[in-house]
Structures are given as structure tokens and as C-alpha cells.
Amino acid sequence: MTLQQLHYTSAAPGPDGSGFRFTAVSDDLPAALLGEVEQLVGYEPPRAAPARPTADELTTFPIAFSHHLLSDGSRLLCRAVYTGTDYSGRYGNFHAHAVRLSPADALPGGMLPIQAWESSFWADSTPGDGVLAGEPTSAGRIDKARLLEFVRARAERLEPFLADVRNLFLDPDAPQLLVVERDSADVAHWIAVASAVLPRERAGRLTFTTYTRRPGLARQQIVGTSPDADTDAADADRRFRVHDCAGGRSSPARDDAPDAWASVAARLWLAGLPELVSGTVRNPEGTGPDAPYDAGRLAVLAAREGVALDAAGRTAAARRAMEQPPTSDRFALLTGLAAGGTARTAEEWTALAALADEFAPLAGHAITDPLVRDLRAELTRASDEPLPVLLSLHRLAEALRLDLTAALPVLTTRMSAALLDDNDDNDDKDRAAVRAALGAHPELAAAVLGSLDRAAATGDPAAVARVLADGIPGADLEPHPHLRMAAALGMAGQHTDRPGLLDSLMKAAGAEHQGEPSVLRTAVRLIWGDTPIRPVEAGILLAELPEAWCRAAGLDDSFVQAALDSEPDDPEAPELAKALLLNRATTLAPRQRAALLLLELAGDLTAGEALTGYAGRAVALRAQALPLEPGIETRVSTALAERLLDSTAPPGELLALVQGGDEPFLRAYDRAARREGVADRMRGTPGYAAECFAAWQTAPGAGALWEEIRTGLLTSVLRPVVRRMPAEDVDELLGDLRRRGGPWASAFQDWNRPGVLGRISGRWRARGGNRPGTAGARGPGDIEPPREERP
């Protein structure tokens, strides 16, 4: 095969002109490509290079060995060197020698482009005879021994460099790699490393240059340069992944997860086994895009060779091992995984736990000593680790027969919390892991059930009931009364008779536990939760449960609260108050007792059973019950007002209320008296109107509040009724007041003496107003209009 070649340098005048020009070009090389090629073969010496170098100094100039992809799909492999002076003696000359490889061409012997570094084929000057013959060969300048020596000297940059090379393969838009070295030969070594870890076809098309003074103009995938290159730092950070091995700043590690493949590959290189890396890359087992870079496969090979791996490598090896059946060299792999050597991560512990069954036969064997040591240390500090990690540690420790007594409480607490926490969808995996672990480990199941039983007693029993409803593998609830009740609740379904359900749950707990205060508390919280106990329910429980149980379980407070917080129209509340006053009097606080007495009194007033003196008693109790609950306030105020407005109210009760001066009660009386029902009753029953007049004439001047209320009622309620009464009703009202004796009748006459408006309304009443059938009727205060005089 004859390869197309070209030479480019500054030459003496000739047919093609003078200065920099192509001095030799293969006849069959397409002329249309020469313009493109000319832009790629140029050379600028480093800024720090001597302006007039000697022959010896010329040998120190970097060599620009480059591989380009041309627009027509062909490739250009070029070597450019600085030659000092040109034909005219001026400094600044260089010579470029290049070969073009068509898309179908390859280098002799399948050689990779970088293997032609410093081949004897490359010329530093144009051949005098113009004959372009020969082909690149491998000079053997970059062999395995030199490469290993090279990477060991730059071990800290090897792993990130390999990660970036892998990214070149996986991502078409990956950033270019900028390699900064003082010697272009070292850049060539980096390119050789990159070529060795790429699939063969991709390595053959890897574009690179070992040197350019202007990296910002370079378009190759790997760009080599010197420390004094014309590089804009900000532009370099955007465009390149920088690997500076000359004392400058390299790109920081990527933000994503560590590259396990690069980690393992770097360790294999440093261990002198680069062929294992090349072999897996160029002979992948899978077909996917990531197949050449299977970190697990490479890590298994490394572990079997005894190469120490970091946590990412060991994790990859363990995961790969789980995907394949054990082989004869499994022992070597397990030995490598157990050896550790660097801090183990949560991911590694989880992966190692998956091999617990394989480690179990090795428990007590010397090879597991490092693993046991690391595991013991991890168990002492892993309480904050994710729950799957804790479970992995437990599984592995169990396989290695470690004592888990100290670690079990922490694990139990975390497992119980995971089951009880249903607020975060992300915890579904944790709950699934816990249930799987409980099914496989009876001792864990027993410990977690004990923890859940305690949580039901002291925490949220409803949450425990939900856990049990979802099922717990291998759950034995017999020793756990709180769990038995929680399970019974789940089987009870909808239940409107809550006191009856309480009895069922207590029976589910077992007769031996029914007297335990915590059991009764749990049963109540399971049924009522945060919902208050209703008075009717409190009354039933108060009657049916032993007093000692209620007191020990703290239910008495709930019963009292049920009464105090009752609604004004709850029919059972007064009876509950009466029962509490009868059965729990010694445990009531003074304010509670006064409030319950008011609630009881309200019931008696409504039922007409209140004893004489109730108004004064209500005023006195209210003062002791402050601050009084709104429901009781409304209830007793309403009942007291209605009782005082009833015609059967004992004499003196209203006076006692007035003299007590209790504003809320007096205001409630005022509101009740202004209801339309009171006015309707006065219209239909003149005797009741007389009673109201007498009541509202009681204790004039007893206080500003009462004076305001009574005069307002006389004016706004009674007077409109009386003004519209038929004369006979007014007479009946007046007769009732006379029968009472005292000044009531005369007081009414004085109060009812009409003024001008009264006379007008009297005339209206006398004429019947708008009422049919009342024409000519007369009432008190009516006057006859004067007769018209006739002549």
C-alpha cells in the first residue's frame, strides 16, 4: 500500500512561489484538500523558546504530532518540527510531513496512529529527489515498560484522565482534553494510554496533537500544550477537561458519582496489568453502549489478580459477582473483597451483604479478619446510615457470626420508625426492605414487634394498626397486648358503638392485661384518637369501667373534659356532670367542680327541677368557674333566662339575679325577653303581660345595667304589645295587677298614660284600626272625638 504524502515548509522560490508552501505532494492526493490541510500542519514555537536556537536547543523544541479528521472523512497524520532558519537564513521555519489515510485505509499492520510517534519514516526536510515513498512504522518509543514507568510517575492524574477518556467514547459532546506537559513526548504517552483504553476502531480514529501553542484554536479530542501556551483560563474551563502535569491547575473532579471503571483501570495500570483493561474494552461481553466499560467485570478480574481496589471498585466487583455463578477462582475474589484497604462506603456494605451467604462458610477464616474488623467499627457508628445499609450490615454480621447484641436496639428502632412513617413516598423502599428482613430473621421480627408494642402504648397506636393491616411476616402477637388490640381494631371495620368496641379491644388484649392502665389508654386512643369522647360515651364508660382503672389510665380527665366542652344542646351533658359530681367529686379542681355544678343546674332548670334560689346559686357558681367554657356559658345563660321568663318562676329569683349583677346572665335574660315568642305570649295572655310588667318594674335603680335592660324591655317589648291590646285585655292585665296588691296597678296606669302619640293610637284602636270586626272598640286611654256643632 502506498500512502499519499505531503511536505510543507518555507522554501526557496520555485514554480509554486516562495515562503511557506507545500514542497512535495503525492500526485493522487486531492488538490481540493490542500487548503484544509494547510490550516492543520502549521507550527508555532513556545513563547519561552530561544529566538535563535542552536542545533542542540532545537532538539528541545516540542514535536507536534497530530491526527486529524478531514472534511471528506479521511484522516491526516502529521509530524511538524521546528527547524530554525529557512532557505534565506531567517528564523521561524518548521517542517511538516504528513500522510493522508482514506476512510478505507489503515496504518501498516493495523498500527494505531500514536504508535507512529517518532517513527524513522518521518522526515525533517523535503526529500531532494521528490520521491514520496515508504510508510510509517512503529518506532517502539512507547512500549509497555515506558508507559508503566510514565503512569506511575503521574499516578494522581491517571484515574481522572481515564474517566475523561471513557467519557470521550460515551458522549459525542464530551469536552476536549487539554494535557499540559513540559515535554511533548509526555503528551504522546498520555495519548498512548488513551488509545490503549479505547475500543480498537475508536482508538484508530482518536484525534490528537502532542503540541500546539494555541489550544483555543485546536479541534482535536486530546490537545497537548506547554505551560506557557496562549491559553485563556476561563475559556479552558469551559471547553476542556484540563490535566496539567506541569504544576498548574487541573479540572476538579466531576460532580456525579465516582467513576468505578476509571478507578479499577487506574489500579490495574499501576499494578502493571494494562492488558486486562485493554482486553475487556476491546472484547466486551455485552452489546450495549457501556459494554466496553463494564466496571464490575474489570473489578472482578482485578480482585482475582490480587490488585487492591478502592470502595467503588470493590462495590462494582461484588455486584458483578452476584450476577454470575461462582467459579473456581471465587475464593480469590472474596479474599480481595474482604481485604478492603480503603474506607468502605454504604454502597459497598450493601453489595457485600448480597454475598453474605458466600462469606458465611469463611467465618472465622483469616481472610475475613479485615472484613470483620471493618464491620465491627461500622456497626458502632452506623446509627445514622440509611436503613438498607443498616440491614445490610446486620445480614453480613449475622453471616460472619458477630455478636449483634449492642447493635440490635438501634436497628430495631430504625426499622420500627420506617414501618410507622407513612408520610414520605421515598420510604416505600425502606418499608419493603424491613418487611423482607423480618420475614428472613425471626429474632429481628420479635424485636421489632416488641418495639411496635411499645410504640402503640406510648406513641400513635393508629399508626401501629396501619402497619399491622399491611401485614408483618411471621408476626406473633401473642406476647403483645397493645398489638393484639391494634390488630383487632383493623378487623372490626366500621363501628359506631365506640364504648362497645372498647370492650371488644380490652378482651382482645387478654384478661390478664385488662387491668393495666397502659392497655386501657391504648384502647381508648385506638378508638377515639384525637377525637374527643362525647358526653354520652363518657357517661357509659364512667358507669361501666372500674373507678380504679379510669383513674390509673387518666380517663377521668377525659370524662370531665367531655362534660366541660359539651355543646349547649347536648342532652347527655347535664347527666354526665351529675355523675361526675357524684362519683369523682374528690378529684375535681374547684373551677371544674363549679363549672360542672353550673352544667347540672342548667339541666335542672330545663327540666323544671331546679330548687328555689337557683339564680343566686348560678351567679355564685359562675364567679367560681371562670374562665367558663362557652358551651356551658351559653347553656346555663339560656336555661336561666327561660326559667325566669316562665310564669311559674318562684318570686325573688329575678331580684337575686339583678342584685348579683352578673352581666352575661343579665344580657342573656335581655336577649331572651326580646324574642318574638315572649311578645306573642303577652298578646295572648294578659296575665303574662302583667307578670312581665311587674318583673321589669322590679328593683328600679338597682344598677345602671339593670336600669338599661328593664327600661328597654318596658319600652321596646311591653309597650308595643299593650298599645295594641284590645280594651278588655288591658282591663284584664290591670285586674291581674290589682289582685297582686301593692302599687302595681297604679304604677301601670301611670306608665300606660298616653301622650299625643298614645291618643292618636287610641283613636286608631277605637276605630278598629286595620283589624276586621273591631270597629268602634275602645280601650284604656281612648277618647271620643268632639262632636260637630250644627246651627
UniProtKB/TrEMBL annotation:
Q: Where is the GTPase-associated protein 1-like C-terminal domain?
A: 269-748
Residues of the GTPase-associated protein 1 N-terminal domain: 3-130
Q: Where is this region: Disordered?
A: 762-791
One Pfam annotation reads GAP1-N2
Where the record annotates domain GTPase-associated protein 1 middle, the positions are: 147-246
**Protein name listed in UniProt:** GTPase-associated protein 1-related protein
Species source reads Streptomyces ehimensis
